[in-house]
Design a protein that fits this description.
Elements (H helix, E strand, L loop, with lengths): L8 E3 L4 H9 L5 E2 L14 H17 L8 E11 L2 E3 L5 H11 L3 E12 L4 E13 L4 H10 L19 E5 L2 H5 L3 H10 L14
Parallel strand pairs: 1-2, 1-3
Antiparallel strand pairs: 3-4, 3-5, 5-6, 6-7
Helix pairs in contact: 3-4
Length: 206
């Protein structure tokens, strides 16, 4: 038995929601932002784009000498609405138009995941998909939500764990995936690399 996790875990994302999900699951990741130019990455479908972005972020951070020996997690989310990949809106006007087009409809939140083992040089990746059913907020509610600033910082201009939660009727799939990271998929990817997720748990406080 050991009192310390056997491997360093590095999250290649500045998302506080992803960091919180990992911490709530007993993990203690460090954060190192990749700096990948997301606009330069293209793919034929929203799911492919989410995966390509996650792989790009993980590989850039995994190449940094200071993370040698660590497991690097890269993630990226986009909303698939009628086959169009919707990330963070560029400004308040776009966020408003986005919400007016989404209300009363359903989209699929696609989150790409990539885990890079810097010891072996191997990486594995996958996409988690969750259907999101949007409610019908009024124009006044949309305006108030956009004015809060929150939708400008999240993929699809919404999140389940923030001010837009009352405007989401329900989901079909993993709720963590909508927040930013699917823990069940992460567990499976780690297992493919021969790492049990419980091996990465922080020591319990005594």
């Amino acid at each position: 038995m050991t009192d310390q996790p056997c491997r360093r875990l590095v999250l290649a994302s500045q998302s506080p929601a992803r960091l919180n999900l990992l911490r709530q699951a007993g993990l203690t990741p460090e954060v190192l932002v990749s700096g990948v130019d997301e606009d330069a990455v293209t793919a034929p479908t929203p799911a492919d784009l989410a995966l390509a972005l996650a792989e790009a972020k993980a590989s850039v951070v995994a190449a940094k000498p200071e993370v040698k020996g660590a497991l690097v997690i890269g993630c990226d989310s986009v909303l698939d609405l009628d086959g169009e990949a919707l990330g963070k809106p560029a400004d308040a006007e776009e966020a408003t138009a986005r919400w007016k087009s989404m209300r009363g409809r359903a989209g699929t939140l696609q989150t790409g995941h990539c885990v890079y083992d810097t010891t072996s040089g191997r990486y594995v990746s996958g996409v988690a998909s969750t259907v999101v059913r949007f409610g019908e907020p009024t124009d006044e509610e949309v305006a108030a939500y956009v004015a809060s600033g929150e939708p400008l910082y999240v993929a699809g201009a919404f999140t389940l764990d923030g001010r837009s939660a009352p405007f989401i009727e329900g989901i079909d799939g993993d709720h963590g995936n909508v927040i930013g990271l699917s823990l069940p998929l992460l567990r499976r990817l780690l297992a493919e690399l021969g790492v049990g997720i419980t091996e990465l748990w922080a020591p319990a406080e005594r």
